[in-house]
Amino acid sequence: MTNTLYDALLRPHEANHGTFLALRDGSRVSYADFLKLSARVAHAMAGAGVRPGDRVALQAKKSLQALAVYAATVRMGAVFLPLNTAYTAAEVDYFISDASARLLICDGTSAAALQPVADRTGAALLTLNGDGSGSLIERADGLSEIYAPAERGPEDLAAFLYTSGTTGRSKGAMLTHDNLLSNAEALVETWRFTEQDVLLHALPIFHTHGLFVATNVILLAGGSMIFLPGLDIDDLVANMPRATTLMGVPTFYTRLLADPRLTRELVQHMRLFVSGSAPLLAETHRDFEARTGKRILERYGMTETNMNTSNPYDGERRAGTVGQPLPGVSVRIAEPHAGKPVATGDIGVIEVKGRNVFKGYWNMPEKTAQEFRADGYFITGDLATQDGDGYVTIVGRAKDLIIAGGYNIYPKEIELLLDEMPGVEESAVIGVPHPDLGEGVVGVVTARKGAALDEASLLAGLASRLARFKQPRRLFVIDELPRNTMGKVQKNLLRQQFAETFAVKG
To answer: What is the number of alpha carbons within 13 Å of residue 337 lying toward its C-beta?
Structure first.
């Protein structure tokens, strides 16, 4: 009986006694033992009523057992629904209801708040704590270590990933077995992963980066992971001598750069540093290379597609770009409304096509239809340019585009200039309601340690470098930019915070 993901990622390791995970406490878990655990978990989940095609929601801290839930779900032919551990009970209620989840697995501390959700939706509720305890594991203990994989083909669903919902209610992106497998194959090839690799894994596993990129790549390559609970610089520094690769978000690299222990000697044996999930400042890229002699490889993906582009492993890794299309992925830069490709170097919306592109949004056929062109390209909503060598440079989100007085203004252009100014740590540029222009440009910056910033000086610094219509009409200095769990600046929150900047006072 065939099961596309299980056959490629898991079945080859059933008798593999080499290390799959090295845990923070120094213990090691072999591939074979991990798969035995996943079989016991699968039996426990089946006992809770899970059948092939059912949705299994997991909102639990990162652990060996939580990763086994993913493997068990694949094995059972069910659909994995990972949920951010920061979601409230009200948010979880929406996801469980929308997905019609059969099983909700949560941390024991959340069980009381989530039991009414399970009762109302008809989902079974089991617990899984960060230390690996909980009712799920209690049920799994002593059960059979053999579980025959359910039959699942390339087009069968493997996972739901819900979008952030910043522009409306969250949408469940349906990812198939082939979506996930094809992307892992492309990344193993492009990034040269082998069974000799040891990945330093400090990402969450409720997100595509830590789960479907990092974990699937290691499973397919047969390498191992140093499996850390989260981002802790002491942990990264202590474990780096035993690793060969690191996948992180830009915050990983800015915090490493702030630590004097980051030296050429520390990273001399590392073959690859990857950054994604949020834009990496070109300055960070350059500073990291100057400090370590290693060039960070930046790539680009999204919930609905996994990875689309990557800077090359061999070849020029260009700071400020997200590289070229991955094998098997077609990328074009098109006019936002017509879908017609723009001229080389012009700004347009990124559209992608390939085996990596999701099947559609759960129970949203009209929304799904709106997001695809007639020729099958998915409209990402990300604005970018592409040069003659195929390198893509993202300039922002279509929803972040500012239209002031009829002029299109791309925040990234202004942010790059602000980031270069003395004393500026980071910036975000947004559009907020303006009584005359429709939208007014507002800049928000944070200061480097010890620096004093003021609005007038920063605006004066932009005056000779930007057309007047692009220049911010107000600029605010704040302590910290709001971010989501993967490090992306939440401009929707900034737009809310500064919405009244140009309001006419009555």
So the answer is: 0
